[in-house]
Amino acid sequence: MRKNLRLILLLTAITCVPLVVALIALTRTHWSPVLDLAMTELRVRDVGTRHTPLVGLPGRIGTIPNQGSHPGPISFYLLAPVYRVLGETSWSLELGTALIHIVTVAFVLVLAFRRGGRRMVIAAGVLVAVVLRGYGANVLTQPWNPYLPVVPWLLVLFAAWSLLEGDSVAVLAFVIAGSICAQTHVPYVGLVGGMGVLLLGWLLVRGRVGQAVEMPNIRRWTLISVGVGVILWLPPVVDQLRHTPGNLSMLSDYFRNPPEQNVGVGEGVKLLLRQLNVFRLIGGAFRHSDYFKVASFDLTGSVLPGLLFLAIWIAAAVTAYRMRYRLLIHLHAVIGVSFLLAVVAMARIFGKVWYYLTFWAWGIVALATFAVVWTVVARLRQVAPEWLPRTDRMFVVGSSTLLGLSTLAFSYSAAHLKPPENHLSRPLGAVVGPTATALTDGTGAADGKAGTYIVTWSDVAYFGSQAYGLVNELDRRGFHVGMSDYQHVPITQQRVIDPATATAEIHLATGAFVDEWKKRADAVEVAFFDPRSASQHARYDSLRTEVIAALMHLHADDLVPTVDTNLFGVETDPRVPPDVQSRIDEMLNLGQPTAVFIVPSSTSGP
After folding, report:
1. What is the predicted pLDDT for the residue at 463?
2. What DSSP assignment string belongs to 87-126?
């Protein structure tokens, strides 16, 4: 038993070495979280206080300013211990995120060992290494709610497979990992819920595939799992009882009455087939890490490669059934159900199909590829037993080689990792210190930490992303700071500041708005930073000229004025083609001049 445990721990350590390398790399650059990640840190900081969050991060659920949130706060609770111990630094959030994935990997390998011993845990270790590199260090160290569940979702799939195999302990793994996924990001609600309903039906009728499946201690583990599930879902229920409407009611209305037309089953099938293009992934794996993320940005093109892989998988599933290989049959059954649930989930996407809305599908694709390879090897063993010694040697050599190469390549890319949204984090980090000093010194209308401050913004690029980060950074430093009631959902209710009672207004301006605020007689500029060098200024101006010319050529003249006032809005306009979007994206990454002003709270910005 000790040897087996050492093997599991060794494989966990090897596959997760790149995450450790990434965490070390992240210490080189200070990170000031913006937008969603700033909102996340505010909520993690609230855990254990009288403002402990009961729901997840705000999402595209309902109508601003009263939008709903993702189902539950479990991710905040998991991040809070490390965050507290390490002094509430932003880096500790990245460490906490990596630890969640590392622990999850260990449990995946435990279930793999329970399915097939040492050979299976080695094979699963290779699968995990490939999946981790596919997502990349940026995803696996970033506490963003669409990213946090990607590895727990793999554990959900392994737990479902284990349940079909009669492993009663897997009920608990399914409940915990499924709760992490479903509470953190709403697309997982249907995936985990659908899988859970089907598994429950199987448990009730004890479906038979091949020989009978024994489930020792199933009642005990089910009762334990139900108890744990009730505890994990208690916060969202408390929120539902305390508020009208509660967040669960808002989510229910969201699912029943989406604000826009769903993309539909046809488009859902196409999205899945494009993600099943494993041939593109294999090519991407030779070029760079995070090939899942790269592929997610371009879910267009032919569905034929996906259809080909689907046909290969179906052939593999049929082969496993004819071989009466129960372990493989159950794995293929989980994959088949996942494909069906994936189509339903993708069909229900409304509006723009953002890449992160289907990010979970790569885990299914990786597991399907794993199952196909396993089926081929199993069939070869059956029809050509003389290959057995050679296949064993090939397994050891092949697994070790693939694991080593994947881990080394991933570690190399992880060593060059920078914090999330560094082009926004760097300017924010540059203005936070001077702003805090000005507040402490009582500059303008400020009154030190005795004052109450409302943050406003005029942002030409990212709809106030850095303003949320400014609230987070000043809150970290002990200032009583917040935003107006219009932002009560993202900023949290306890940080709502009434302008009439605020000591002063802290205004963050970017781009062209900086010059407008410099003209204000009552505005005191306390911080300024321009991230662009002279050559980058010239590049930005050149790109701006090209974008304006392209918009006029497209007869989108109405967008021209907003190039200098709402650049992100121009990029996301459906009339703007990909080649123009890429230029705008480069402009956004070059950055904008950023300034902070302190003004009397009774005034209003331009």
Report:
1. 81
2. TS-HHHHHHHHHHHHHHHHHHHHHHHHHHHHHHHHHHHHH
